[in-house]
Write a structure and sequence with these properties.
Layout lengths: L3 E6 L4 E8 L8 E2 L2 E6 L2 E5 L2 E2 L1 E4 L20 E3 L1 H9 L4 E3 L1 H5 L24 H19 L8
Antiparallel strand pairs: 1-2, 2-3, 2-6, 4-5, 7-8, 7-9
């Protein structure tokens, strides 16, 4: 049985997950503190998840640099680390994926991002990038509230 009302704002720049318990007489909206990488191997919780995806070089992910409490062996990062990488490595960073979802001249399911990246950089679709943001929020929720998984 559901214990919370949950809302997700998938934003172009930042995404958040807000919630309130169903059994509260005077419900109060709270934002989920989202654990995310802020540097390789460094996790901090923030009230928003930067809507950026960093597609790492294979050697960057060695040693669990992009691991999260709920997943290891990742070769990408979403959130604050990815946002920071946009300035240093723009060819490997996806930003504004949500804007591409409704772009009339592209197929949102085709691997086109990062836009204009060199051929050696793996590409993802706007749908896949957005899916990774949403999956991160769901996994963060499930880690914080294991007795109330989002699927329920």
């Amino acid at each position: 049985m559901a214990q919370y009302v949950i809302g997700i704002d998938l934003g172009t720049t930042n995404s958040v997950l807000a919630y309130t318990p169903l059994d509260e007489e005077r419900p109060r909206l709270e934002l989920l503190a989202v654990p995310q990488l802020v540097a390789a191997g460094t996790i901090e919780s923030r009230t928003s998840l930067s809507s950026f995806l960093y597609l790492a070089n294979p050697h960057e992910a060695e040693g669990g640099a992009f691991d999260l409490p709920w997943q290891s062996g990742r070769e990408f990062a979403v959130g604050e680390l990815a946002r920071r990488q946009a300035a240093e490595v723009p060819d490997r960073t996806v930003g504004a994926a949500k804007s591409w979802l409704a772009h009339s001249r592209v197929d949102r399911r085709q691997p086109i991002l990062p836009w204009n990246a060199p051929a050696e950089v793996p590409k993802v679709s706007p749908v896949t990038a957005s899916q990774r943001y949403l999956e991160h929020l769901v996994d963060a929720w499930n880690a914080a509230f294991p007795d109330a998984p989002l699927a329920e």
